[in-house]
C-alpha cells in the first residue's frame, strides 16, 4: 500500500477527513511513506545520514538485519510526541527527493494539522524571567523587527536562539544557559539545570501561588530526562515603553496594551503555545471590592489571545494554596501533555 493509499484508506474508514492529527496517525503515515520510498539499505542512510536522526537503542545498531524497514523507523522515533513527529514530517516533505504522490499522505496530514489551530507565525523574541526593573527596549531595525534592550537588560533573560519547530524543551534551555553562563562541558546537565531553575524561580518573587505551579511542573524534569517542554515564567507578550507611573503622571488612564506579561508560557511546538495565568485578588478586585471592570479587561484579553491561537488556562490563587494543590497540578500537567501528543 502506498502512502497515498494509506491516507485514503484512513479517510474511507472514518467516512470523513480527520479533524485532528494524532501522533499515532502521523507516525503510521511517516513509516509508510519511508517504507514505500526506500530499500532497507537506503532507508538506513536516509535516517542516519541525511536526516541525521539520533540513534538511542543501546543493544543494537541500525545495520542489524533483524530490523525491518518499519522497525527501523520505529526505533529511530520511539517515544516521540506529536510536535516532534510533525517536525520530522515537514523535513521529509521538504528535504527528501520524493515525488508529490509519495508524500501525499504526509502533506494531507500536515494540512489538517495546520488547520487545527495554533499560532501562525513562529516565535522570534523570547524575553522572560525579569527579576528587577522593567527592561527598556528599542527597535534597532524596525524593518526586520530587531529588538535591543538598552537598559535593565541584566534583570531579564532573552532566549536568542531559533525556537525549535517541535517546541522549546528544558534541555534546550539548559544548553542555552550553559553557553550563556560559560559553564564547562564537564558540568552535568543536571547541575546546569538546577542553576537555571533557581534563576527562573527568582523571577516569581515571593508569590507562593506562582511558585507552587512552577515547582509542581519542575517535578517533570526528573531522572535527567530533560526533553520536556519547558515552563517559562514571566514572558513578555506585549511591551509598553512607558511605566504605569509615567502614564498616570501624563494623565492617561492606563497602558493601551493589556497584560504585558504572561505568568507562564509553554511552547509545545512553534505553533502550539499554552499560557498559564495565576489569578490573585488584584485580577478581579480593587482592594476588597469586586471590580467588574478588571474582570472584563481580563476576559477580553483572554479572548484576544485565544483568537490569536494561544491556549489559556487560569488558576485561582486560592485553589493553589489548598492542601490538594500538588495533586491537582500534577493531574493537570499530565492531561495537558497527553492532549499535546
Description of the structure:
The chain is α+β, with helices and mostly antiparallel strands. It has two domains: 3-115; 126-339, no CATH class. Helices cover 44% and strands 14% of the residues. It has helices at 3-14, 23-37, 40-50, 69-76, 82-95, 104-115, 170-181, 189-202, 208-218, 244-249, 292-307, 317-320, 325-339; strands at 126-128, 136-141, 146-151, 157-159, 232-236, 261-267, 273-279, 285-286, 289-290, 311-316. The protein has a four-stranded mixed sheet with strand order 5-6-7-10, sandwiched between helices. It has a two-stranded antiparallel sheet with strand order 1-4. A two-stranded antiparallel sheet has the order 2-3. Strand 2 (136-141) and strand 3 (146-151) form a beta hairpin. The longest helix is centred in the last third of the chain and has 16 residues, at 292-307. The two termini are 26 Å apart. Residues 1-18 have low confidence and may be disordered.
Amino acid at each position: 500500500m502506498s502512502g497515498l493509499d494509506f491516507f485514503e484508506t484512513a479517510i474511507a474508514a472514518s467516512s470523513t477527513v480527520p479533524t485532528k492529527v494524532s501522533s499515532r496517525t502521523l507516525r503510521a503515515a511517516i513509516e509508510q511513506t519511508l517504507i514505500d520510498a526506500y530499500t532497507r539499505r537506503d532507508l538506513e542512510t536516509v535516517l542516519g545520514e541525511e536526516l541525521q536522526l539520533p540513534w538511542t537503542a543501546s543493544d543494537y545498531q541500525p545495520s542489524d538485519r533483524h530490523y525491518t524497514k518499519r522497525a527501523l523507523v520505529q526505533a529511530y522515533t520511539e517515544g516521540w510526541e506529536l510536535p516532534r513527529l510533525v517536525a520530522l514530517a515537514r523535513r521529509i516533505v521538504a528535504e527528501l527527493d520524493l515525488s508529490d504522490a509519495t508524500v501525499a499522505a504526509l502533506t494531507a496530514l500536515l494540512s489538517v494539522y495546520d488547520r487545527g489551530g495554533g499560532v501562525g507565525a513562529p516565535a522570534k523574541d523570547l524575553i522572560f524571567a525579569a527579576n528587577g526593573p522593567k527592561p527598556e527596549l528599542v527597535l534597532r531595525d524596525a524593518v526586520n523587527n530587531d529588538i535591543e534592550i538598552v537598559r535593565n537588560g541584566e534583570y531579564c533573560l532573552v532566549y536568542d536562539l531559533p525556537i525549535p519547530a517541535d517546541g522549546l524543551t528544558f534541555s534546550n534551555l539548559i544548553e542555552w544557559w550553559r553557553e550563556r553562563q560559560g559553564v564547562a562541558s564537564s558540568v552535568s546537565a543536571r547541575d546546569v539545570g538546577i542553576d537555571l531553575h533557581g534563576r527562573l524561580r527568582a523571577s516569581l518573587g515571593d508569590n507562593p501561588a506562582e511558585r507552587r505551579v512552577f515547582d509542581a511542573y519542575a517535578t517533570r524534569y526528573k531522572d535527567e530526562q530533560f526533553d520536556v517542554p519547558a515552563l517559562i515564567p514571566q514572558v513578555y507578550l506585549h511591551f509598553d515603553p512607558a511605566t504605569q507611573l509615567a502614564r498616570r503622571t501624563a494623565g492617561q488612564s492606563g497602558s493601551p496594551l493589556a497584560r504585558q506579561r504572561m505568568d507562564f508560557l509553554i511552547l509545545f511546538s512553534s505553533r502550539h503555545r499554552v499560557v498559564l495565568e495565576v489569578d490573585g485578588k488584584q485580577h478581579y478586585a480593587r482592594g476588597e471590592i469586586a471590580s467588574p471592570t478588571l474582570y472584563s479587561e481580563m476576559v477580553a484579553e483572554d479572548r484576544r489571545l485565544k483568537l490569536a491561537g494561544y491556549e489559556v488556562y487560569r488558576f485561582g490563587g486560592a485553589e493553589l494554596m489548598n492542601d490538594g494543590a500538588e495533586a491537582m497540578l500534577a493531574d493537570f500537567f499530565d492531561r495537558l501533555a497527553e492532549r499535546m501528543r
